[in-house]
Amino acid sequence: MFPKVLRICDAVRDVDERLATIARRLKMLYFLNPVNADAERERFWSKKGAYEPRFRYKPLDFDRDLVRRELYELRIEDIQDPVLGDLYRRKRWEIDNQLSILDERGTENLTFTSEKLFGPMDEQDVKDAHAILEMDPLPEQRTLSAERVKRMLEEVVASYTRKAGESFACRVRLRKFLASNAAAGETSVALKTQKRYSLNDARILGVHEVGWHVLTANNGTRQPLQLFAIGLPGFLGTQEGAALFAEYMSGTLTVNRLRIIAGRTLAVSLAVQGWRFSETYDYLMRMPHGFDRGDAFTICERAYRGGLPDRRGQWHGVYTKDSIYQRYFVRVVTYWRSGLDLRVLSAGKMDLDHVPMVASAIDQGVLVPPTFVPSFVADENNLKLRRVVMGLLTQRPSPPAEEPLPKATATTPKAKKGKKKAASKRKAAKKRTAAATSAHEQKVRLHVVSGSGAGSEKP
């Protein structure tokens, strides 16, 4: 049960407000994205890949020691409820590690601290990435300017305001220094000024950045604790996985997009193993169904940002955030198939493990239901249909294999006897298949009616 936070002492509100102020000051990607990426890309290509980019980063505009001191001066011990106290302690640990990452740019410690935050990669992550990358890329025309996409996203923002009858806070801006096509802040989306986008790219941004990242932050600001706007501890993996799931459910997730996600997973894996930037780039280019040079460089830039090469070209420091997209996409799909309530998940920035606690708090009236509902979540018919169909596809038993017909060269009594025997076996196999299918369909119907499948989605 979630504690009755509205009735406890002012210690909670004090810790909540001060912690949120500290968290908003960090601006992780602002300090991790290289400021000279475009120049280094051109130099890298001019040297035909025989060069290790030397990225430069913005200097921090705050005193790390003072921020860390402020962080540990928070009187979390005054919070009486153990559940809330644990949430704020774990969030403080998370922010402390984010500070360490900014301290450790260009050092080996960056990799270690990143893996503490985002978790280490495992063999299955890499296998999944390779399986995805076996798909052929499809041609895609990128002709839309950043300014044009900005106007399209502003219309998405306006549509959420109209549907909810409340102001949806989101400012769409153009930025020069980004290591991706776009990035979302708490109530903003930044587009790369010099980037050209496809029509589907624009739709993805409307679903992923506006329709999930900014939407959950807007819902989080309406909760009694700011922790739901800045993110509960461990929220980031679920945020990215759920945003990809939103793409999938809305029909904007393409083969090319999924290949980019898998490429990021693979690039982080190679970087952590000690591969140089140029080696990973070359691998992404030359592998079967490889990437073009633009995508290959951007994937590597994201994996190696925060790091620096030494004089021998060996890289020090890997920011491993890009390993979470593919992994948590799979995790969100798995949870959703088992009955995850996506409306609760959209009520603020949280991890999947927090959903039962938050659902209970909403039922108690301690937290509020989401004001803004993602478009794909509002389409309940589509959600239920996809869940049932996916369950049928993954649970249906394979029919028994029929035995091959015996070969006979002549119509002899022996051959006739063999044919009768084979026909009898085929007839028995068909009966077994029909019985198994009937039993399975009855099981699926009972599963759905009982509420553990598609029927468990709350209206």
Q: How would you characterize this protein structure?
A:
The chain has helices at residues 10-26, 28-32, 37-46, 64-72, 82-103, 109-118, 123-133, 146-164, 199-221, 227-230, 235-250, 255-272, 277-286, 293-304, 324-337, 342-345, 355-364, 375-378, 380-395, 413-449; strands at 171-175, 182-184, 188-192, 308-309, 315-316. The protein is mainly alpha-helical and 459 residues long. The strands form two sheets. Strands 1-3-2 form a three-stranded mixed beta sheet, with helices on one face. A two-stranded antiparallel sheet has the order 4-5. The longest helix is centred in the last third of the chain and has 37 residues, at 413-449. The protein starts with 9 loop residues before the first helix and ends in a 10-residue tail after the last helix. Residues 405-412 and 436-459 have low confidence and may be disordered.
Average pLDDT works out at 87
- What count of structural domains? 2
What structural class do you assign from the helix and strand content? mainly alpha
Strand content: under 5%
DSSP helix fraction = 55-70%
Q: Please summarize the sheet with the most strands.
A: 3 strands, mixed
Order the strands across the largest sheet as they lie in space: 1-3-2
Q: What order do the SSEs take from the amino end to the carboxyl end, as H and E?
A: HHHHHHHHEEEHHHHHHEEHHHHHH
The CA-CA distance between the termini, in Å, is 22 Å
The number of E-state strands comes to 5
Q: Radius of gyration in whole Å, from Cα?
A: 26 Å
Model regions low in confidence, pLDDT < 50 over at least 5 residues: 405-412, 436-459
Give the count of helical stretches.
Answer: 20
Describe the global form. Answer: globular
